[in-house]
Backbone:
């Protein structure tokens, strides 16, 4: 029986934390101002009305309302405001 670990075994056991990217709020879902709708690397989804683009390309709601996705030449995300 060996008294020392096998070569290279002490170099194993580390892994990076996943980034948790993707859509966080689906179409038609109610969100409050400041809620993150999409986490992404680069601009796979583009901001439209009543949403803003963060420094890390996160798309978040600028006001309360319902999420809407629109597919044209690009995929756009917007917020439909509450109607009273």
Residues:
């Amino acid at each position: 029986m060996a008294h020392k670990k096998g070569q290279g075994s002490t170099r194993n056991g580390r892994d990076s934390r996943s980034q948790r990217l993707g859509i966080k709020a689906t179409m038609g879902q109610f969100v409050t101002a400041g809620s993150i709708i999409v986490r992404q690397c680069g601009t796979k989804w583009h901001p439209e009305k009543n949403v803003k683009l963060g420094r890390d390309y996160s798309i978040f709601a600028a006001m309360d309302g319902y999420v809407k996705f629109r597919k044209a030449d690009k995929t756009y995300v917007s917020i439909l405001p509450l109607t009273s």
Notes: The chain has a mean pLDDT of 90. Residues 24 and 83 are 23 Å apart (CA to CA). Strands lie at 22-23, 30-31, 36-39, 45-47, 51-53, 59-61, 65-71, 75-81.
